[in-house]
Every structure is written in C-alpha cells, then in structure tokens.
Amino acid sequence: MKLTRRTGWIRLGIVLSLTWFVFVSIYAIFEHQSAKAYYAAEVAESYNRNKNQKIPEDVRKELTKVFGPVKYFGKDTFLSSCRRVEEEQVSSTPQPDEWEKYTVKEVSCTTRWGNLFALYLVPVAVSWMLVYIVVFAVLWVRAGFRND
Q1: HSE (CB half, 13 Å, CA atoms) of 112?
Q2: Which end of the chain is more exposed for a tag (fewer CB within 10 A), N or C?
C-alpha cells in the first residue's frame, strides 16, 4: 500500500484541484456581475412602473409599528447577496439621462463568502477522500489475490 509510488497521480489530483479553484473563481465573478446587473435592471423597471404610486404616510407608519422599519429589499443567489435602499432614502429623483448612475448607486451586491468557500473546499475534499478510499480498496483486493 505504498502511495509514495503514486506521486504522478497525486500531482494530477493537485492540478485538478487547482483547476477547480480557478473555474469556481471565474464562475463566482461572473455570477456576481450578472446578479448585480440583473437586479439593477429589475429595480429600474420597478421604479419606472411604480414611480407615481406612493404608500400613504399613515399606512407606512402602521406597517412600521407592526413589522418594524424595513430599510432594505434584495435578492440572493448562491454566491451573491444584492440589496437596494428604499426609494424614500434616496436623496434625489433621477432624471432620465442620469438613470444609469442612479441604479448603480442604489444596488449593492456582496459575496456570500461561506457559500464560496464551501463551493471551493467541499467538492475537492470529497473527491480526495473518495479517490483515496478507492485506491486503498483496489490495493487491498490486489494484495489479497497476490497472497493466494
């Protein structure tokens, strides 16, 4: 059961693990950017659709009493968490030519680091454990046939 003779396979495993880290990083960057762009477009569409519909102040106060102050609305993906500030907290109403700046300022996305590290480490750790179990089993069976 000498695994030292299998250093080529171990090196291949290391290269595949590093390749996994690179591809997960690229995927995380792509998902973060696309989630932010998608949510910013959704916020812009929602603002354009509802810009003339305001919640009356007495209804807002009653909702605040019941549910507490709601400051952020957002969407989460597996690796990103996007939020926007309520329209009343935005200092000025944007003009149509300033809409791009307005939506970018209003939407903020952060990386969900726990999920990212789980996506980095869990598949690699499970793969290494499975490979070592399979190699151990094959070597053990092979040693049993040689002893007969």
Answers
A1: 14
A2: C
> Is 72 inside a domain boundary?
yes
Residue 145: CB atoms within 10 Å: 7
pTM above 0.85, yes or no: no
Q: What are the tokens at 148?
A: 């007969």
- Please report whether residue 141 resides in a domain: no
Domain count, the chain: 1
| Residue in the structure block whose two tokens are 């952060």 | 110
Q: Backbone phi, then psi, for 91, in 5-degree steps?
A: -70, -35
* Whether the Cβ atoms of residue 101 and residue 137 lie closer than 8 Å to each other: no
Print pLDDT tens along the chain (148 aa).
455 677 888 899 999 999 999 999 999 999 888 888 888 777 777 666 655 555 566 766 666 666 555 554 677 888 888 887 554 444 455 455 444 444 444 677 888 999 999 999 999 999 999 999 998 899 889 988 887 6
